[in-house]
Amino acid sequence: MNGLRPSRIDDFNPASGSFRHIKSEVGTRWLQAWVYVPVLQDPTSIPLVAIHGISRGAKEQALLLKEAADRTGRIVIAPLFDKRNWKRYQQITRRNRGDIALLQLLDLIEARGITKTRRFDLFGYSSGAQFSHRFAMLYPQRIRRLTLAAAGWYTMPDADAAYPYGLGHGTAATQQWGKRMALALPAFLRLSITVLVGDKDIQKDSALRSFDTLDRSQGSNRFERGQRYCEMLKKVADTQGIRPDIVFSQVPGCQHSFSQCVSQGGMDHMILG
User: Fold this and answer.
1) In what order do the strands lie in the sheet with 18-26?
2) How many angstroms separate the CA atoms of 224 and 213, rounded?
3) What tens digit of pLDDT does each residue of 203-257 get?
4) Is residue 3 part of a domain?
5) pTM above the 0.90 mark?
6) Domain containing 233 — which CATH number?
7) What range does the domain containing 118 cover?
């Protein structure tokens, strides 16, 4: 990548791969997605589902992952959780269930013959990483590989912390989710999990949730929180007799910017291989 802004989706010639716009009806709402299909698709590969951050740059993510998708022959599915329909999509278990919406979208993509979606790799950036790790804790059987980049904070595999910060008893409205994730925790810990954070992503910006208890338990910035999350996953896996495949990796020279992480840090290669 050359560090420039990505071109518009409409600029691409279908002969070098094609972008498809999908709309899935979810009750009275819609979940849209941009799906990139490389011209030399590897029929043995499984798709990558890429979840955007709060800037909701689904198109940008699809464009920035296009080069690696072409090289590997893999389909990229980039859902758009627009602000009007999915205001707090990253919390996943609120009344507007983003997890159910994603599952229905994937069913539609498979029904249209674009690609099989029963298992897929899941990637999330920033708030998308919050969505992705909670989705994977609910549905580990659907995920082959989980890649989380620069999440603001995590649901830790900690029975002593109330959900959504851990898996312990929360409010009456949330405690069921901690129980469900705890039941699926052994399968989740057996996933291949990579956490990526720019080595300069150490600022407390306005989008980073911060209060004393959270900062003490998870760290004061995204870099520290990613490290501690991996450490706790490995510790819990060890107590359950599970040999984890969990890796924390720095993205060199990068701050909290997906485009910079791709153009300067090579994150697209880390995600798609």
Assistant:
1) 18-26, 29-37, 76-80, 48-51, 120-125, 143-149, 192-198, 245-251
2) 15
3) 988 889 999 999 999 999 999 999 999 999 999 999 999 999 999 999 999 999 9
4) no
5) yes
6) 3.40.50.1820
7) 9-272
